[in-house]
Amino acid sequence: MAYRNICNCNNYCVAVVVLFMGVLSSNGAAAASNSFNVMKFGAKPDGKTDSTQAFVKTWASACSSASGQANAVMYVPKGRFLIKAVVFRGPCKTRRVTVRIDGTLVAPTDYWALGNSGYWILFIKVTGVTVVGGSLDAKGAAFWACRRSGKTCPVGARSITFNWANNIVITGLTSINSQQTHLVINSCNNVVVRNVKLIAPSESPNTDGIHVQSSAGVTITGSILQTGDDCISIGPGTTNLHISNIKCGPGHGVSIGSLGKELKEDGVQNVTLTNAVFSGSDNGVRIKSWARPSTGFVRNILFQNIIMRNVENPIIIDQNYCPNNQACPNQSSGVKISQVTFRNIQGTSATAEAVTFDCSPSHPCTGIRLQNIKLTYMNKDATSSCKNIDGTSSGLLVPESCL
Ligand SMILES: *[C@@H]1O[C@H](CO)[C@@H](O)[C@H](O)[C@H]1NC(C)=O
Ligand SMILES: *[C@@H]1O[C@H](CO)[C@@H](O)[C@H](O)[C@H]1NC(C)=O
């Protein structure tokens, strides 16, 4: 899906945070401890009372609790907390802030209440933040219905976003029914996402699980992704991303791209996906770019130890990406794809063609490797197709390699 203007909320965010800075220092109660409970700041676990300001104040206290406190905890107890769009901004005086959530954060039922900023829960310029546990319920159904109806709708909110953040851990989080992407990691360094569950119906539009962009050193492991769009989408400027032990489906699979939206675009480099199960997804592992000139590239990628169960396009490189055939650029992709390995991938395809390589005529794919592939379609060998590609294959290969 399209990922532009990911940060255009920024001016608004600054305004919101500055507004509440003044309130914080007056609350001396929490200063004695390095744990800050949202209830002490007025949050109500009834799912009805707007607790946004209580969360903002709690964050600001935890974030500025310096004076020798190297670590602080922002604590959200059991219960349902109604939260509107909220910004947790750094840098903090506190070296590390743990946001421990035992309860559920719920968005307003009226999707207009989150405005047009594109986010619901947003962390900006924070370092050393760990989010542990918790559930997010963005109540996306009404928003998806709005989009389907053709009425005027807001842009929709990503449930939890990290912009310009470093040394982040997100663990044990569950997110359901996001309006847009569940979790966005944008312009970050050193992020671990572990043991998360991101769930939305297969027909929900653009509910990607995790989107990573312009970020380095991201690990995603032990997670369940059931969505209406990509389980994980990997945007320009992603380097050293390691994904392991995930379950994907329903959804559109794990995608590098779409790339080549812009002429000048950063590349994607050093991505590994190891130990994954795809079930009933539209794609398994995919690289996609629009058919137009671009400075982008995809290099040094490894997809290995993967089980496909009834997946429509288990292995696909699509350099003529153009969903719904609308406004297709109809040129030749400038995105240079090289050194991509597909190893130990087996299971069932939901279509006859399980391996599709549709590379750019002007910038053919190079260094593509297939090793030990066994994909069947209705108990018969699946097929494969190759365009503008150079590479090698070894081991057992079903379908027969077209390289
Ligand atoms: C990608 O990985 C290689 C080693 O495989 C390393 O030399 C290179 O620096 C990495 N690229 C980036 C951008 O970190
Ligand atoms: C691209 O090609 C398709 C079919 O080949 C055609 O229907 C469409 O109008 C073309 N789009 C543009 C922008 O030229």
UniProtKB/TrEMBL annotation:
Gene3D superfamilies: Single-stranded right-handed beta-helix, Pectin lyase-like. It holds the Pfam family Glyco_hydro_28. The active site is at residue 252. PROSITE patterns: POLYGALACTURONASE. Its main location: secreted. It comes from the Eukaryota. Residues 1-31 form the signal peptide. It is found in: Secreted, Cell wall. One of its GO terms (biological process) is cell wall organization. Keywords: Cell wall, Cell wall biogenesis/degradation, Glycosidase, Hydrolase, Secreted, Signal. GO terms for molecular function: polygalacturonase activity. InterPro entries: Glyco_hydro_28, PbH1, Pectin_lyas_fold, Pectin_lyase_fold/virulence. Belongs to the glycosyl hydrolase 28 family. This is Pectin lyase-like superfamily protein. It comes from Prunus dulcis (Almond).
